[in-house]
Amino acid sequence: MTKSTRTRTTYRCSECGWETAKWVGRCGECQAWGSVAEAASVAPAGRTALAAVTSPAVPIGQVPVEDAAFRSSGIPELDRVLGGGLVPGAAILLAGEPGVGKSTLLLEVAAQTARTRHRTLYVTGEESASQVRLRADRTHAIHDELYLAAETDLGAVLTHIEEVRPTLLVVDSVQTISASGVEGVPGGVTQVREVAAALVRMAKTRNITTVLVGHVTKDGSIAGPRVLEHVVDVVLHFEGDRNSRFRMVRAMKNRFGPVDEVGCFDLSSEGITAVTDPTGLFVEHHSTQVPGTCVAVTMEGRRPLLAEVQALVTPTAAERPRRTTSGVDSSRLSMVLAVLQQHCGIRLHNHDVFVSTVGGAKLVDPASDLAIAVAVAGACFDVAAPAGVVAMGEIGLAGELRRVRDLPQRLAEASRLGFRVAVVPGERGPSKSRSPESWTVDGMRVLDVQDVASALRLLRLTKGD
């Protein structure tokens, strides 16, 4: 060892790549137990010498932007999430649970790109070439400009890129590719870091749009080192329920567009298709009004979606009544039930409460609190809410209703789908009366209420009505 270098011992987490100077039993980044092990590294000593620049610095206004123009992926919903489409030289990471449809989606993107006369290279490390061909036959993704290679060695993948010279590169998945001469097993922290860095470097130098498929851990986070999310330009998360055909793509990071957009898809045996109007999937059409139901207007990114909440309340003799949810946060339901009992006089301490959404929708928006309260109150008193009503508003612990964001967009979406009455939080202040105020927007009557008790009285969902 020369005098210009020195060896220092560090400890690295095998799950996320977090490093520390001393051994600890629990990772300080991902909180995993027993994953920190010794890893020797060589750190250079002394100052870094000057080196030649690749290109001179120029005023930012003189930097050409034509090479970074968006190109459509052929799937409108994916373009919506990406901010306009695929950018040449961009590195995109798509993560999701096994079987959610990542490979099907990217095979469709590769086929659509090939149909626009842009050469595409699809590298698979998890399946054989014949298995991917079977899927392509089923989804009609066969094209002469779509090249397929089954490789697990990084050097071989780079050779394919040199020979094919694609416009779009898809690697499925980054955890299955290994770099020779690098310690660790494929999918390990060191291997994933080296493979991702080499592919991103190739994407930047050759102006190739690169899409990497990533695995997720049991808690839903992206597997591998966190540096993987930092080196790429876009991080997309593909999610969906196995019991439903509905899938959603969320942007967790995007250097070329917004990060609050979502794309909706329908996954079937014939492939994956974009769903431009997914609201109808989450609302049940009843021939008569049913007690224990209410429609909420939630925001998925910048898109308003209507989702129906259903509740069932049954007496129980158990010491601890059941609180079962599907598509609704259980802690959020517990808070709503406590407010109903404390401020609305609805006694639920000796009742089992079941709350679910229609179509597998997941309600994480606090604005759905009022719809949950209306559904539970209607189920408790066996009274149906008036027809054509939507309810939105965040419930506070004092029983008040808090204003929600993007109210005009929510009301416009509800009006477009035929709803005629909306119950929303009103302005609070000493000059405001307790009686609800009403106004009209797009043919819909909007009722402003101050608290959840006033909303239930207005909808005749209180005891004795």
From TrEMBL:
A motif (RadA KNRFG motif) lies at residues 253-257. One of its GO terms (molecular function) is zinc ion binding. Residues 352-465 are annotated as: Lon-protease-like. Keywords: ATP-binding, DNA damage, DNA repair, DNA-binding, Hydrolase, Metal-binding, Nucleotide-binding, Stress response, Zinc, Zinc-finger. ATP binds at residues 96-103. Pfam families: AAA_25, ChlI, Zn_ribbon_LapB. Residues 67-216 form the RecA family profile domain. One of its GO terms (biological process) is recombinational repair. InterPro entries: AAA+_ATPase (IPR003593), DNA_repair_RadA (IPR004504), P-loop_NTPase (IPR027417), RecA_ATP-bd (IPR020588), Ribosomal_Su5_D2-typ_SF (IPR020568), Ribsml_uS5_D2-typ_fold_subgr (IPR014721), Rubredoxin_2 (IPR041166). GO terms for cellular component: cytosol. NCBIfam families: sms. The middle region has homology to RecA with ATPase motifs including the RadA KNRFG motif, while the C-terminus is homologous to Lon protease. Belongs to the RecA family. RadA subfamily. This is DNA repair protein RadA. The lineage of its organism: Bacteria, Bacillati, Actinomycetota, Actinomycetes, Propionibacteriales. The gene is radA.
